[in-house]
C-alpha cells in the first residue's frame, strides 16, 4: 500500500487458537448457531477466517483502523464475535492478520500474468509490477487504503510497527531484485537504495491519489519517470 504494496511474505505470525471453534452465525442472527457444522452448508474454518479478513479490509478501508470494532466486524462478516476471537484472539490479532492478508492479495494482483501473453522483458516486468500498485480498481483502492491506515497506526502501535517494518523490507528486497534483473552489474547497495526510493514514492503517490491530491494517470506518469531516473542512475554506477 501504499499502494497495496507491500512486501509480500512479511506477515504476522499465526493467530493463537482455542481448542474448539464456535459456530458462525447467519447475518442478522443474534447468537451463534448450535450443533455441528454441516459439510456443504457451512464453509471450512479456513475460509471463515478469510471471510473475516475480507470484511476487516472493507471496514478499515471505509472507516479507518479506529473504526474497526469487533462487534461491527462480526456484523460485516456475518459471523459471531466468538468466532473472531477464536481465529484472531483479539483486535490486534485481527489487524496483524489483515496486514498479511492485504500483502498476499497485493502479491497476487501484481504478479499474476496471462500465461498466453508474450514474455515481458526485465524492464517491462519492473514497470508493470510497480504500476499495478496504482490501478483504479476496487481491490487496489481497498488494499492501498488499508495499507495506509495500518502504516499510520504503526506510529503508535509497536507490534504493528514491527510487522510493517518486516513487510516493507521484503517489498524493498523484491523491487531491488527486479531492478537487478534490469541492471545486473549494479552494486547491491545501489539496488537497495533505488528500491527504497521507488517504494517510498509509490506509497506517497498512492496516498495522494486516494485523498484526491493527484489524478491516477499523473501518478502513474510520475512513477514511470522515477523508474527511468533510477535505472539511469544504476547504469552510471
From TrEMBL:
InterPro entries named among the record's database cross-references: BetI_C, Homeodomain-like_sf, HTH-type_TetR-like_transc_reg, HTH_TetR, Tet_transcr_reg_TetR-rel_C_sf
Keyword presence, Nucleotidyltransferase: no
Highest taxon above the source species: Bacteria
Compositionally biased tracts (Gly residues): 1-12
PROSITE patterns: HTH_TETR_2 (PS50977)
SUPFAM superfamilies: Homeodomain-like, Tetracyclin repressor-like, C-terminal domain
The UniProt record lists the keyword Transcription regulation: yes
UniProt-annotated stretches for the region Disordered: 1-47
Protein name, as recorded: Transcriptional regulator BetI
Organism field: Streptomyces lavendulae subsp. lavendulae
